Amino acid sequence: MAESQSIRKSSAVFIPPSESTNWVFKRLGRFAREINDAVYGFDLGQFREGFQFTRYEVGEYYGPHFDIGPGRLTERKLSMTVQLSDPADYTGGELVIYPEFVAAKDRGSMTVFPSFMCHDVRPVQTGVRYSLVSWLSGPPFK
Ligand SMILES: O=C(O)CCC(=O)C(=O)O
Ligand SMILES: [Fe+2]
Questions:
Q1: What EC designation does it have (predicted)?
Q2: Does 85 contact ligand 1 (Cβ within 6 A)?
């Protein structure tokens, strides 16, 4: 079945920048840029995509993947995830950035990593995990 072979099983809606959501883009953008300046030093532009609001129910996951790809996806440089769920509300669902980094689960914590790094979200075992994901763009990596 196509579904069971899918790299991803979760629900997502996209939240575009607007008057009511701009503060979130500004705030997360500021933190991500601070991390970029301190750690990566990538040439970054703007958020070119909305925020992805993701829900993983029991058994749902996002298999190993990269966030960069063909076309406009070449412009993704920095990926970021905010944990929206209380860690007491679910088990499993860890965001793992290969080879071995396991993102903190604390609600409100943000993990920022280069979009070319392979990562996955492990299957949720109990409860529901919500995340807010976005990408800062810039000139493609050379
Ligand atoms: O839900 C997450 O924390 C990460 C999801 C992800 O890797 C993606 O949407 O590209
Ligand atoms: Fe991803």
A1: 1.14.11.-
A2: no
